[in-house]
Amino acid sequence: MPQISSRTSGLGTENAFVVLKEVNDLIAQGREIISFCIGQPDFNTPPNICEAAIKAIRDGRHGYTPSAGIPELREAVAEYVSMTRGVEVEPDWVVVANGAKPFIGFTLLSVTDYGQGHEVLYPNPGFPIYSSQAVAHGAVPVPLHLLESKDFSFDVDKLESMITPKTKLLILCSPQNPTGGVLTRETLEKIAEIAIKHDLWVYSDEVYSRMVHEGEFMSIASVPGMLERTIICDGASKTYAMTGWRLGYAVNQKLAPYFSTWMTNTTSCPNHMTQWAMVEALRGPQEEPDRMMAIFKERRDLIVNGLNEVEGITCLSPGGAFYAWPNITELCRIVGASDSEEFRKKLLYDAGVAVLADIHFGMRVPGEGQHIRFSYATSNENIIEGIERIKDFIRTNRR
Asked: Which residues, in sequence order, are CB contacts of 211 under 8 Å at separation 6+?
């Protein structure tokens, strides 16, 4: 029988979807599950965006588009990024893809060479596709630990000490998945100084850029000297509740032509009619996404306050995104769970509450204890009920 390549057989995945299958299997068996495991807005896509897609279909927008995306969308993205990041971006620097995720791979393919030992620094805990794509494309992923004592930022001095002649790329995510941490201006300026000094590319994952709960979002691309070496990546999924529409974009003057070629080599072009929907998303009324962002902030306060009332849990207030990352080290001891993954499974099967464990986002950070992730992209009622179920679970399972 023909063999599967080692690159494929060892390919990592996004464990949120693995846990989601567990959840759906239990629901199919008649169990009532409250799920905090998927990072997906629980709102419908705003009506004006849907209507723009319907109009595009009726207007015959059915064929291939340029690999980099329709000119109208590239122009809209350039306008939007220039306005929200405080930089001057040209439409030719923009490439659109079927979601933001492809640009992780496209960036790795464009700035590292297979089998040359080129290193990629990435946040840990972090979005698991960073490291899985690095390995798949023949680079060496090097985890950059996020620390609870630094509000889930990292030690910038430690960052510089980890850079070697093989280091080609630094991946940042702010606001961050899974911790909700936000990198401060001071930290971004220090990182920028290091990136320039060591001539690094920086992939800036900014898909949660509209979800900063206090203050203003800042992109590292706005630091002097960083725009040319930063790949700004964002998309429609989180801000406009368009996860299933699959549209994202990347911005970089030098890499845009190469990203466009990678699009030609993979999916040919982005989905045609949904590109027109995204034009409307970016240029149309912003009241609905602003309303959604305000609701996420209210939910942030509700879930953080609730979790901190639970025995054995301490939870920092996330600065952005829609994730809480509570420390459950003491709670594991109270209920006799060996680690966060055992606790996660017990909570799902015994209490009907679905969360993700820290190991779903990379290796545990030494000395940081046990954590789980809650996505609070769900209703207030679910948040309140979920916390009550956790309290009941502790009462029943106390050792």
From this structure: 175, 238, 239, 293, 296, 320, 321, 322
Q: Which two tokens stand for residue 290?
A: 């602003």
The encoded tokens of residue 233 equal 């990546």
Provide the token pair at 256: 């845009």
Residue carrying the six token digits 């850079």 = 163
Identity (one letter) of the amino acid at 223? V
pLDDT at 164 over 80: yes
Closest CA to 160 of 133, 125, 200, 205: 200
Please confirm whether the linkage preceding 178 is cis (ω < 30° from 0): yes
H-state helical runs in 286-362 = 287-308, 329-335, 340-346
Assess contact for 267 and 97: CB atoms under 8 A. yes
What ranges in 86-220 are assigned the alpha helix state H?
102-111, 129-136, 156-162, 185-197
Q: 132: left (phi > 0), else alpha (psi -120 to 50), else beta?
A: alpha
pLDDT digit string (tens) for 346-385?
Answer: 999 999 999 999 999 999 999 999 999 999 999 999 999 9
Q: Which of 238, 245, 244 lies closest to 276, judged by CA?
A: 245
Residue 21's pLDDT is what? 84
Give the H or E element holding residue 380: helix 380-397
Question: Using an 8 Å Cβ cutoff, are 304 and 317 in contact?
Answer: yes
CB 250 within 8 A of CB 105: no
Question: Is the CB of residue 118 less than 8 Å from the CB of residue 140?
Answer: yes
**Has this prediction a pTM greater than 0.90?**
yes
Residue 22: pLDDT over 90: no
- Whether omega for the bond prior to residue 125 falls within 30 degrees of 0, making it cis, is yes
143 and 162 Cβ atoms separated by less than 8 Å:
no
d(CA 231, CA 97): 14
* CA pair distance 159, 122, nearest whole angstrom: 10
List, in order, residues 6 or more apart from 161 with CB less than 8 Å away: none
The residue with tokens 């948040």 is 383
Domains identified in the chain and CATH numbers: 6-44+288-397 (3.90.1150.10), 62-283 (3.40.640.10)
Q: Residue 173 and residue 188: Cα distance in Å, rounded? A: 11
pLDDT tens across 186-244, in order? 999 999 999 999 999 999 999 999 999 999 999 999 999 999 999 999 999 999 999 99
